[in-house]
Amino acid sequence: MTEMVRAENVHKSFGSLEVLKGVDLTVPEGGVSCVLGPSGSGKSTFLRCINHLEKLNAGRILVDGDLVGYRERGGKLHEMSERDVAKQRQSIGMVFQRFNLFPHMTVLDNVMEAPSRVKRENKGEVRERARALLDRVGLAEKMSNYPGQLSGGQQQRVAIARALAMRPKVMLFDEPTSALDPELVGEVLEVMKGLARDGMTMIVVTHEIGFAREVADEVVFMDGGVVVEKGSPSEIIANPQQERTKAFLSKVL
Amino acid sequence: MTQPTQTERARPEAIKAVPVRHPGRWVAIAVLAVLGAMFLHLIFTNSGFRWSFIFLEYAEGKRGVMFTEPVLEGLRGTILLTLFSMVIGIVLGIIIAIMRLSPNKVLSSVAWAYTWFFRAVPRLVLAIIFGNLNILWTRIGFGLPFDKQIGALFGIDNFDGQIFSIRSTDLLAGFVAGMIALGLSEAAYMAEIVRAGIQSIDEGQSEAAVALGMSRSQVLRRVVLPQAMRVIVPPTGNEVIAMVKDTSLVAYVPVTTELFFQLQQVQARTFVVLPCLVAALIWYLIICSVLMVVQHFVERHFGKGYGAAGKARQRLRAIQVEQGGRVTPTDTGEGTP
Ligand SMILES: Nc1ncnc2c1ncn2[C@@H]1O[C@H](COP(=O)(O)OP(=O)(O)OP(=O)(O)O)[C@@H](O)[C@H]1O
Ligand SMILES: [Mg+2]
């Protein structure tokens, strides 16, 4: 199987605060990795490094074999231009904890915006695809509503459709259900399970242990800016080896 | 213990209470009514207003002073001056606001200095200065900067790198000078308004846009600015209305095609003072009323997706769709031969 995402020894500091202290992660094509860990352990920062929203201080990240944010020429790293980084981000979808839909656009326009403006694809085709995606997340009838008129769960499903509209190679989820009322969590997780079944490569930061157990191919436990332990869901969740993992799981389970 | 809840109860009699009296309000209304009556009485009976001078005929065979040629010219000048200087102010203001928010220290300092300077100088002083700027240069042109100095460096006399140039008294006189002075000053205020608007937008918005692969300018044009407009439009409306009135300052440039200046001219010729001032006042009221209507519609446009108005429009659209694209079922002409 080919590697879709490969992070090697990723370091990241904000000023003097070192947030990532050498993170390694490999996700094969079609694989689902769930990242668990206490607050402040650097999970969001790591996800944001993958699509270069944050610049690494050391280490490297490859998506589908391409170095993210840099080009290697003659053994030297050259920073990519903003335009080239933007191009790379097109194939890396991201879903945020707080949805971040564009409130001034209708649901359909939210989904169509990037493919039609960024990739300049044919409007008619994009509209068809957007309709199909909204149908897939169960929101076809909300197409002409504005985000402010939707529930949190519906907004998050739109956000997923919006990211999918760019036909990404990998999807990053940063606690996609943490801002939702408990009864709305299920509908978003259902959509994500569907994506996983259809073979999407996914990295999911989550506190939903049940989801990780059911969907993940690999569970990664992070704490203090390093990967403490990783393995199959049954290994990590049912039978953690490290003390820190045990302590964390005893709190969330 | 849970009690079985009663499903139906006899409705009690409706409350018939004596409402609280507000004698203070009635006194206030009475006072205002008397003042209003006095005002109307003054306007309609005092011959000092000379309404026919204002509206009908200000001299033998001429129209009312509000509608004479020079005054209408002045009105046109005031409107154009407002329009052009606001366009300069808004465009430049957006650019300066973006520079101010740039991570580049040089750009943001320049923007800061611009705002500092043009907010510190009174518009009146600025207008007079711009009326006299042609003292600095005899010609103003577009082309290679420092062309004379570069020529001297290479020993060429009279090296000319200008693509075109015109006499500065032609360019920096009257209308254009006034327009630039007001526009540059306005840009400083607009920059602050735009900056506040941009900063009011949640960081997550641009983050989501960037994550979708948008370029910095796309993020600004498609995501941040359209949302910031909601915050930007109301104070900009204030700025436009203030600008309508500030155009009277360009009389000092001097610019003569301006409403208030023209009415003062009439005043000087006819020695009729108050009616001329009232005529100016009425025109300013009319312009500002029109602008307020425009502002209402602009605000509604940028309010899409927010609040009660947005929801009402959404319902209207839903009704339209249900009815097959029409709002009123009567406009099909069915049943009429
Ligand atoms: N832009 C930034 N500037 C400075 N410090 C930051 C920045 N972003 C994150 N941090 C710090 O980095 C650390 C890790 O943050 P991060 O958001 O990655 O944690 P997390 O694991 O996602 O936590 P949570 O579960 O609360 O979301 C925190 O201590 C945070 O304060
Ligand atoms: Mg986080």
TrEMBL record, chain A:
One of its GO terms (molecular function) is ATP binding. Keywords: Amino-acid transport, ATP-binding, Cell membrane, Membrane, Nucleotide-binding, Transport. It is found in: Cell membrane. It is a peripheral membrane protein. Residues 5-249 form the ABC transporter domain. The keyword Membrane applies. InterPro entries: AAA+_ATPase, ABC_ATPase_HisP-typ, ABC_transporter-like_ATP-bd, ABC_transporter-like_CS, MetN_ABC_transporter-like, P-loop_NTPase. Belongs to the ABC transporter superfamily. PANTHER family: AMINO ACID IMPORT ATP-BINDING PROTEIN, GLUTAMATE_ASPARTATE IMPORT ATP-BINDING PROTEIN GLTL. This is ATP-binding protein. It comes from Actinoplanes palleronii.
From TrEMBL, chain B:
Residues 75-295 form the ABC transmembrane type-1 domain. InterPro entries: AA_ABC_transptr_permease_3TM, ArtM/GltK/GlnP/TcyL/YhdX-like, MetI-like, MetI-like_sf. The chain crosses the membrane at residues 26-44, 79-99, 111-137, 171-191, 271-294. It holds the Pfam family BPD_transp_1. It is a multi-pass membrane protein. Keywords: Amino-acid transport, Cell membrane, Membrane, Transmembrane, Transmembrane helix, Transport. Coiled coil: none annotated. It comes from the Bacteria. It is found in: Cell membrane. Belongs to the binding-protein-dependent transport system permease family. NCBIfam families: HEQRo_perm_3TM. This is ABC transporter permease.
